Amino acid sequence: MDWLIDNIVTLTIFVPMILGLIVFLIPDDEVWVIRRVTFVFSLVPLALALTMWFVWSDSFRIDPTFQFEQQATWFPAIGASYHVGVDGISLPLILLSAVLTPLAILASFGVNEKVKMFMTLILLMEGAMVGLFASLDLMIFFIFWEFGLVPIYFLVRIWGGADRQYASFKFFIYTMAGSLGLLLSIQIIGLSTGTFDIPELYNIWVNMDPVEFAQRTGLSLNVVKTLAYWAFFIAFAIKVPIWPFHTWLPDAHTQAPTAGSMLLAGVLLKLGAYGFIRLVIPLFPEMATNTAGLLATLGMLSIVFGGFAAFGQWDFKRLVAYSSINHMGFVVLGIAVMAYYFGQANIDAAGTQDALLATNGAVLQMINHGLSAAGMFFLVGVIYERAHTRDLKRFGGIWSILPVYGGILIFTSMASLGLPGLNGFVGEFMITRGAWGPFYIQVALSMIGLLMTGAYILKGIGEVLHGATKAEWVGHLEPMTFTEHCVIWPLMIMMLVLGIWPQAILAIINDTVSLLF
Amino acid sequence: MIEQLLNLEPQTLGALTWLIPAGPLLAFAVIILFIRNARNSWMIAWAGIFTAVVLSWLVAFNVFTDYVQDHTDVEKNPVRVASSVAWLPIGDYYADPVGAAFGSKDHTEEKSDTKSEDDSYSDEKAAKSKWVPAEKSSGTWFRIGVSADPMTAIMLFMVPFAVFMIFIYSVGYHNFGKEPGTVLGIPNHGQQEPLFSRFFAMMSLFAGAMLILVVSDNLLTIFVGWEIMGFCSYSLIGFWYARDYDDPKRTPPRAASIKAFMTTRIADVVMLMGLVFFYQQFGTLNYTTAFQAESIQAAAAASTFGKAGLGIMALMIFTGTVGKSAQFPFHVWLPDAMEGPTPVSAVIHAAAMVSAGIYLVLRIFPIIAVGLKAAPAFGWTIAGIGAFTALMAATIAVAQYDVKGVLAYSTISQLGFMVAALGVGGYIAASFHLITHAYFKALLFMCSGSVIHGMEHGAEHVHDHHSDPQDMRLMGGLREKMPITFWAFFIGGMALSGFPIITAGFWSKDEIFAEAWFVWTADGNPIGIFVFIMLALAAFLTAFYTTRQLAMTFAGKPRSPLAEHAHESDRYMTTPLMILSVFAVVAGWVGIPDNFLNTPIEGGFYNWFHHFVGATLKTPIKELKEAGYVLHKIETLPWSWVPLSASLIVALGGIALGYWMYWRKPLEEGEEDPMIGILTPPLHNFLHNKWYWDELYEVVFVKPTVWVSEVLVYEWIDRGLIDGILHGVSKGVYGLANVMKNTESAVFGDAVDWVTFKIRDLAQELRSLQSGKIQEYALMSALITFVFSAFFILLRSGAFNGILN
Asked: Cβ distance A298 to A240 under 8 Å?
């Protein structure tokens, strides 16, 4: 047991990867076995993540920093080490990845082409995602960051829709373009401080002496910090994505296979937001404070333009894809509040409350969006598999044919809409409340986007389910299968539970967030 | 036994209050998950709402007993039941927050720690940690909970009971026990609704949400109930989601449901802002805590805008009411919402949802009162919206032919009365009218449903599927065919008209007039006389169009085969009509003014409603008055004959005019409505078409939104501008790479060629291994390397220093 606890983070990262390689050893044509074995394998990291979650509260009370830390020599020449651990911000995200992966695998039971490779890629991706969330070393972080790109690229490239080539290329190049600046900045930070260890950098890099820095590198600290800040900023802004770096998302999400969209929207978008919380703001607190207004404005623009663009879609999947931009805009708004207050010397009680609410809300909103977006993409996949179209104009009256599917779609849509009582609302409320203090203008404008959230969700429901049943669908749409129910019900239960009792996950988030302000 | 039940312990009451919404919510969950059978679904729904009625009345009567036993104590501590739980953790698990960042501790020292193999992981960590954890505090929590004060009590008395009546009625309305219909999503006339269980599930959820709103002790859970109701009204208005009309101008239910949700959502997002503003200023969303006089003064002092800041906040929250209670300019959703089944109209537009809007304003009344004193514009905004809506909707109602349409506009108009009352500070008047209106309007809606049901029966009988069974021009003579419905409709109609002394509507409207008159006479405030005149006109029209409706529906001879073959509805429908008829009369008797007809305040009449409900805010308002924040305390108004005379004249005058025009000589088949001649066709069209608000909004808001979404944001900004730049950049890079490739061959020319050819020969052999685009990849790499080298060199040289510092 102790051995397990001591190595649990490493195990959660590498077990899915190793299991993925084991899946690769199964003969190609044993599709039935491959699917089920992969699913069972994916439960292992889930069990590990859940273990961390249950162990969390006891140990945290005693040592309120990173839990389950592990550090090993890895690349001493440049000062990089293998350093992993979790805190209240990364653990919920790891849990989210571990929950969504098995569901994505279940959702892919209908994939018939190159099944083995598909399943292996998903497990590899899970490892990369967990690894990224658990990284406490910049080099490791970057490696997982890049490594995570590869599986999703192939998932879109090989199993994607008609326009998959353009979409996967755009996604890959765009993210890579951001990564280059990130890599460069990481190198400069490592070079000047002699370490890549994130917790150490929180001190060393932030309190770096300009004179010493100039002596070591021959560069001006201010210039380097500014450049590095913007490099980090853009890299993560592309990943979130923040308006106007968002146009890769609708293409990639629309073209990706169902499981790919679920994981893209569910987890991969969170990498960007997580990067802001874990790296950008703590490493560059002053610049973050100075540019918080810009970040809030971009978040607001994401909310508003994301909402409008989603409403303008007639492809159901594209509509859902744009909804991610709309929802992640709230995360960005929350992060902007964190950026504004983080590291400020004298914030009053009201400011502290703003910061705590917004930061808690941002992390919670990531989880909530992960659940509802995955659910929405899955449900789009369900109807696409039956109707072979995603054109909203061709649907109509599906509710009379698929009453259960209709109910589930409405439930999930409402969670996405942010109906109070379901999960989406809590995060949005906390962020709105936290951001009201410093950024009330942005909040007021983002309400337009919140309005559009309602508009596009109702458009989706209305066009698909309502209306008189069209003759072409009668008798052609099978009810949802047992496997499909197995995918959506856990998501729906989590949406409901987190809506009614958000402290189930928020308590852990708050443990860490309350240390920041 | 009864005495014990009326004097329960506060803890017990707290637990019971939590359970009030639980019954309907549980019923919803059970029905939606497991029940497809009609009988089981209504029985479970009834059980849920009946539990809620019993628990609600228990709690309400306990509060009332407290008041009867010691009213000064209730005035001091109006919250008789309170229970809350910690809901959202916000910061501070530790009494003394440690460290400013993720960890300022030295991590390198712990490198070996994680490999330790001691027994207890936690202890191990504790021993090694350099931290001495501070004492764990309870932390800072956002709490949610339930409470009951006199205001809650009267809502608890009214809401679940009225909803229960509607539940009973719905069973008959959906033809329970008849042959089951087969077509989903449209009305199956004369057959049992095929989605019977879904209907009762959604109605139960609706009732649960309304009860959450009523028992909440804070504005957040009020908002939760508020929005869930919004969702339920969306699903219930669009219950017949597959219904289409031949007439393209008529809104189908599914469009009506979207319109209702979106219109109210505009208001709701503003309200949400108001709530976060409230939370920020007061540090809590619990209204009892926030509205202690000291707390309001502190918030006014802290706000940049002072008392006006509180006013802005109040207006933002009030916007939510404007949407939910269908006030101008958000009133357009309510008439279309009549597309839902009639029980839905009764529950949404009478007993529950629209009342919730008024209830919200009543809950934030202290800041409304502060705003009224702080700025005249504040009062003008609220009273102006209310009074204008009341009159406008009344003018529309006189030119409608749809039996439910008249009631829809009447609802908007009556809600305008309440809002206007609040705009002149009439806390009690508004809450009184809220309660009486809920009873008689629920009654009227159900009566109209019964009429429609009868007409539909007639339509089935004569196989006429084109005539509109809701059109009053096709009715007439239903008095003999549907006697129970007639008498119930008559009683409800008289209550709505404000028939003097007997009916509930008279007393509550009279109170509003008195309040407006008081503001005019005591303060010399022109808002008072403005509201007084506008509402008097509206009340006159109300009495008139109600009598017109009664006459057109019930008087004279049947004007169509539908009416000819109509017959009385079954007992599921008529029983609730009879019960609510009683309430439509007696509910007003609890609010007879103390000094009615200039009797002495002490010893004359006793205004139970005024004193009981007034106890809710008596103390905080009194303290605010002493601090100079509000204009008036909550107390009995001085007697005046003017409002009484006004309400007598308008009610009796309106009824008399309606009688003279429509009842004395009922319409004949094919005869034109005399109203058209009186108003002249253009004006009648203007009113009949609802002042053309829908057409205006379509052009001003709906179409531009679609254009902005589809064209501006998506086509132009996303696809055109942003993607255009991206594609441009990628083309540029690709072009640059080509240029470099060509330059390279020109410069190095032949010298390289030899090598190149040799390599190419080799490559020919290895072709199967290559993608064929190796050169381009190589060039791209070279380019990127070049760019970064240049960047580093420039960086080192300090070229950016000037720009970036």
From this structure: no
* Interchain contact, B269 vs A223, CB within 8 Å: no
Distance, CA of B375 to CA of B315 (rounded, Å)? 12
Tokens 């108004």, residue? B637
Q: For residue A417, what is the nearest residue in chain B, using CA coordinates? A: B231
Q: Are B339 and B233 in contact (CB under 8 A)?
A: no
3-state secondary structure B744-766: HHHHHHHHHHHHHHHHHHHHHHH
Find, in chain A, the residue whose alpha carbon is nearest to that of B785: A180
Contact between A10 and A84 under an 8 Å Cβ cutoff? The reply is yes
CB contact under 8 A, A200 and B223: no
* Chain A 166-205, residues with CB within 8 Å of chain B CB atoms: 170, 173-174, 180, 184, 197, 199-200, 202-203
Asked if the Cβ–Cβ distance from B272 to A450 is below 8 Å, we say yes
Of A409, A485, A489, A496, the closest CA to residue B25 belongs to A496
Mean pLDDT, residues B74-100 taken together: 73
Q: What is the ipTM of this complex?
A: 0.94
User: What residue in A sits closest to B255 (Cα-Cα)?
Assistant: A462
Q: List chain A residues with CB under 8 Å of B185.
A: 397, 399-400, 466, 468
Residues with Cβ within 8 Å of residue B720, at least 6 apart in sequence: none
Percent of chain B with pLDDT over 90: 45
**In which element (H, E) is residue A37 found?**
helix A31-62
- B533 falls in which pLDDT band (50, 70, 90)? very high
CB A221 within 8 A of CB A208: yes
Q: How far is CA B277 from CA A298, A459, B209, B302, B571, in A?
A: 22, 30, 24, 12, 50
- Distance of residue B9 Cα from the nearest chain A Cα, in angstroms: 28
Q: How far is residue B334's CA from residue B287's CA, in Å, rounded to a whole number?
A: 29
For chain A positions 248-267, those within 8 Å of chain B (CB to CB) are: 250
When CB atoms are compared, the residue of A443, A452, A467 closest to B273 is A443
Give whole-number Cα distances, B764 to B742, B751, B768, B772, in Å: 22, 21, 8, 10
Q: Does B465 touch chain A if contact means CB atoms closer than 8 Å?
A: no
Residue owning tokens 């190589």: B778
From the list B269, B283, B174, the residue with the least C-alpha distance to B230 is B269
Q: Is B91 left (phi over 0), alpha (psi -120 to 50) or beta?
A: left
Return d(Cα B432, Cα B531) in angstroms, integer: 18
Residue-wise pLDDT for B716-769, tens only, equals 888 888 888 888 888 888 788 778 777 766 665 555 566 666 666 665 655 544
3-state helix, strand, coil in chain B (%, to 5): 70, 5, 25
Largest CA distance in chain B: 121
* Residues in chain A closer than 8 A to B722 (CB atoms): 244, 246-247
The residue of A9, A356, A458 whose CB has the most chain B CBs within 10 angstroms, and thus the best one to mutate to test that interface, is A458
Q: Which of residues 274-333 of B touch A (CB under 8 A)?
A: 276-277, 279-280, 283
CB B617 within 8 A of CB B427: yes
pLDDT at position B102: 39
In sign, the C-alpha dihedral spanning A491, A496, A499, A500 is negative
Q: Which of A168, A383, A149 lies closest to A256 in space, CA to CA?
A: A168
Q: Which residues contact B697 (CB under 8 A, 6 or more apart)?
A: B332
CA B218 to chain centre: 16
In chain A, residues 104-163 whose CB comes closer than 8 Å to chain B = none
Distance from the Cα of B146 to chain A's closest Cα (Å) equals 15
How far apart are the two ends of chain A, measured CA to CA in Å?
35
Sign of the torsion angle spanned by Cα atoms B295, B301, B303, B309:
positive
